[in-house]
Amino acid sequence: MNQEINFIIRNADENDIPEVMEVNLRTLPENYWYGFYKFVLERWGDIFLVAEMDKKIIGYIMNRVEDARDPVLYGKENELIKEKKRSIEDIMSSFKNMFSESHKVGHVISIAVLPEYRKKGIGTALLNEAINRMKNNYGTEAVYLEVRVSNKDAISLYKKMGFEEVRIIKEYYRNGEDAYVMVKKL
Asked: What does the pLDDT profile of the chain (186 residues) look like in tens digits?
């Protein structure tokens, strides 16, 4: 049952990193070291957000902005709907794109909500706020993320928010599981 709860979304600060790390450790098999969180926070603090309820961090989203030349990452191509066999024109087009202008894209590095607070709109709120800030503050053309191919709940959420699967990265995760790259054009 989707019960409404009161939470706020705010910028993370360095004092939040231990709690963010705890949320990460409790929810995801991929973990980062303290210095990585600090690095992201120092460079993209306005798009590193936490969800807080009663002064407790219950979720977070950590993002960065990148310059991409890969047309898949800025939503121009979808490798999953192209034919398996690539023509010489496709190969030349991809090669040409490597030397073309770059495009600003947002990258969702990590998003997590504690299990007891899931399905209450927190992940959606974090992602919406981050996307709006990436677009408004950095002029991003698209946002992308990686997600385990087995994570049906997350994939469903991302699809509802306008992301589409555009690539598979084989054995992306430490345990050998594949990842979808999902992109939302802005």
From this structure: 445 689 999 999 999 999 999 999 999 988 999 999 999 999 999 999 999 999 999 999 999 999 998 888 888 888 888 644 556 665 555 555 555 678 999 999 999 999 999 999 999 999 999 999 999 999 999 999 999 999 999 999 999 999 999 999 999 998 999 999 999 999
Measure the CA–CA gap between 56 and 53, rounded to whole angstroms: 5
Which residues are CB-neighbours of 19 under 8 A, at least 6 positions away? Answer: 50, 56, 57
Calpha distance 104→109 (Å, rounded): 15
Residue in this structure with the two tokens 């019960």, named with its chain if needed: 3
Specify the length of the chain in residues: 186
For 27, 70, 72, 147, the CA distances from 166, given in Å and listed in that order, are 25, 12, 7, 12
What's the per-residue H, E or C state across 32-75? CCHHHHHHHHHHHHHHCEEEEECCEEEEEEEEEEEEECCCCCCC
> 151 CB contacts (<8 Å, ≥6 apart)?
none
How many other C-beta atoms can be found within 10 angstroms of the C-beta atom of residue 146?
18
CB neighbours of residue 4 within 10 Å: 7
